[in-house]
UniProtKB/TrEMBL annotation:
Organism: Nocardiopsis mwathae
Segments passing through the bilayer: 21-42, 179-201, 222-253, 273-296
Subcellular location per the Swiss-Prot or TrEMBL entry: Cell membrane
Recorded coiled-coil stretches: none
BP GO terms, sorted: cell division
Keywords: Cell cycle, Cell division, Cell membrane, Membrane, Transmembrane, Transmembrane helix
KW Cell membrane (keyword) present: yes
Membrane topology value: Multi-pass membrane protein
Family, similarity comment: Belongs to the ABC-4 integral membrane protein family. FtsX subfamily.
Protein name: Cell division protein FtsX
A Pfam family per the record: FtsX_ECD
Length: 302
């Protein structure tokens, strides 16, 4: 009997404040979609960082006849002795995990494979334009400067580049998008909490006669508040379910394109997607329930 009464009160509250309830659901759905999007970007960035941290390498380019640098103009094309000396120096460093020598032909072939989908760039480069080089895998990518200084300026060395410095710009852009999305999401969540509070307050006011009768017959605080709390929880749950649809769409139609554009396997797993959806739905339910509870403490003092 009590369960039936609570359910009937929930239905009455939702029906009387239908437009406000719909507004709450839409606001919560948008807020959670933005919040979930920020979490997705956070998961994507973390996964991409983990992928590249194990693959980031330092590249030591050797001088060639066509090298434009001043160091190469003075010393000329790198000799075999200079290559051997650079390789020995790199192998002697404790920060270096492995050293691989790449010939000009191998470097050109690798370039063609990497940019096979960009014909204009691939056609602009000819064999011999890319110098031979040493690809150095570091035990710790943060030790780049120490390793680079050991070979920078050595005879036969044109330049030293670090993949991580290029990737940091890309990760910085993604971090900015993540912070922006989460900031907007939290503002929206705050607006949703205020809207939920107003909706519950109107619902409580429209049923003040019923709640007054319940006070007179000795109903407990929790029993009086329960229908209102469940109304908020239901609105939050529906908003969370709608948001999960948007989050799933963002995962398959947006983030999956990153993998296609950059041609490396860092797509988010189903487990990561379910984690983001679960956090978003739970947050929606908690947000609506807590906002309802705080509002009821003020407007339903018993």
């Amino acid at each position: 009997m009590r369960a039936q009464f609570v359910l009937s009160e929930i239905w009455i509250g939702l029906r009387r404040n239908l437009t406000m309830t719909i507004a709450v659901i839409i606001t919560v759905a948008i807020s959670l979609s933005l919040f979930g999007g920020g979490l997705l970007i956070m998961q994507q960035v973390s996964q991409m960082r983990g992928y590249w941290d194990s693959r980031v390498s330092l590249t030591v380019f050797m001088c060639t006849k066509a090298a434009p640098s001043a160091a190469c103009e003075e010393s000329g094309e790198a000799t075999n002795e200079q290559r051997d000396e650079v390789e020995a120096t790199l192998n002697a460093l404790p920060e270096v995990e492995s050293v691989k020598y790449v010939t000009q032909a191998e470097a050109f072939k690798d370039f063609q494979e990497r940019f096979s989908n960009q014909e204009a760039m691939a056609d602009a480069i000819r064999e011999g334009d890319i110098p031979d080089n040493f690809r150095v895998q570091l035990k710790d990518p943060d030790q780049y400067d120490k390793v680079a200084e050991a070979v920078r300026g050595a005879p036969g060395v044109e330049s030293v580049s670090d993949d991580q410095k290029v990737l940091e710009k890309f990760f910085g852009l993604l971090d900015g998008l993540k912070v922006g999305a989460l900031t907007v999401a939290f503002i929206q969540l705050g607006a949703a909490a205020l809207l939920i509070g107003n909706t519950i307050r109107l619902s409580a006011y429209s049923r003040r006669r019923e709640t007054g009768i319940m006070r007179l017959v000795g109903a407990s605080n929790f029993y009086i508040q329960l229908p209102f709390l469940l109304e908020g929880a239901i609105a939050g749950l529906i908003g969370g379910v709608i948001a999960s649809g948007f989050i799933t769409a963002a995962r398959f139609f947006l983030l999956d394109k990153i993998e296609a554009w950059f041609a490396f396997p860092v797509a988010l797993s189903t487990g990561s997607l379910m984690y983001v959806i679960g956090v978003s739905v739970i947050l929606g339910v908690l947000l609506c329930t807590v906002a309802s509870f705080l509002t009821l403490r003020r407007y339903l003092r018993v």
